[in-house]
Amino acid sequence: MKKVGVLLIFLFLIAFAFVQGETDSDKIDAGISCLEKKIPDCSTLTVPEIAFTLLSPVSSSTKTDCKTALNSKKDSKNCWPSGSCTIKDTALAILALKYNGESTESAESWLLSQNKTPTDLIWYLQQNSETATQCDIEYSGNTYTINIAENKKIDSPAGNCLTLPQSEFWLQVSPNCYNIEFKIECRADFIATLFYKNANSPKFYILSETQSAPQYGEITLKVNSKCFGTTSSCDYEGSLWAALALQETGNNVSSFVPYLIAMSDTNAQYLPNAFIYMITNQEEYATRLIQQQTPQNYWVAGTLYNRFYDTSIALRALGTSSEQASNAQKELLFSQSADGCWGTIRDTAIVLWALRGISKITPSTEDCDTSKFYCIPRADCPESEILGNFLCFNQQGKVCCKSENLKLCSELGGKKCSSDEQCSGNPRKASDGDCCLANCEPKKSECEKRGYFCQSSCSENQESANYTCKSGVCCKLKSLTEKAGFSIIWILIIGIVIVGGIIIYLQRNKLKLFYFKFKNKFKKESGAPASGGYPPRPGFPPIRMPPRQPPRPQPRESSDVFKRLREMTR
pTM to 2 decimals? Predict the structure, then answer.
């Protein structure tokens, strides 16, 4: 038995050392191996499971099998799944097939044909001037004149398409007139814009393209508001995935963005900030997404999915450059099961998709960066320079562009950090150097970057570390494992516990029998008889205990006599 114990301890130490030396890439490879073991045949999987598997860095043989299975589940209308086409499944299939070099034009056409006009958005038209003025609004062959007072209030509606709401500061656009052009001309310099809101929320959203015109100039505006849905109503989650898939395949999805933004507050369970940031590349949504990260460095948007799914979506949006994304990546790797998976096939595949950039396996399509082109936001690359045959791996919201097309930092809305500062997040390259779209913070020393402390001297519980500080010395907490013999003792204790547990499990039947005999022996020799009392000694008659006398009743203080006695004794 001693030899078995020593052998188990030795094996435990080897396993412990192996785990400690495992790299992130090794963990990803273990995840790929586990996923492929769980998928003997891709045809048995759902469309999302197949799509996420194709987006993950699995082997070429698995990709071939899954592409065949995915195409077999396509409906004759070029949508997925066959017989019950949905927006989300079709969008996922487009993303997966496009990533693997397949043509998706017919599926994109079906998806675009499923656009709807949102009925739960309210649109407004506002025109404003420094002084009171009169404006003409022309549409559908008719011209309507309105007066804007000095307090900015409008005196009348402008036909059936532009009604006057209770506020009287702007005009409400009728849903029947969303695709009509409104031409506005005023007698003074003026600005005009469209803004919108969720019908169930007080928050307003203004379009970024506010226009201005001089006296008697003209501004043309048109509400372009769409969503996706296979029925008469909009499918919000499907619209998120559809907009992302269509943008990744080079389609213009700007008309779907207002619906996604306005309805995000009432659809938080889908983690909309991640999708909106990937689609628009607007930094405020990256900031909102980062604020949603839990102290444990993962994301949980609601009960619809789990932390593996939601964290993977967030990581796809943020990329791998930010501190928050790096922490999320570590959390996912730390949460990996012993078999290499992350729970279900879907969750394992989507985690591998999020962590795809650190795998040893080379993607089957051409990488934009390694091909010496530029991965930049879609808005910064002219359509003529977009290279559709090259992909920006792990950089959602960006396209492969023939030239860099850098803008000034001021044009990006950022700031230049000084030499002793660093960007707290969302750094961008600009034509005039590095640009920070977040905040400039004081640079951390080499010591602080390692998570240690710069102090005038180290305390008893600390020891010096060989890293530089701006002032003082670098101190770190003493590691318990560095105390003489401590790590070996704990490893031996853990090994003994494991070995003891194994021995108990293997000898459980003998232990049960021993416990049963011991228990019966105790009852026979020391246990009290069922009738109660003590067992009689040999040769003596049984001792009978006298009956227990009830307690004497205490006199009650029911008269003034007791009160007087108490007072006399005081």
Answer: 0.63
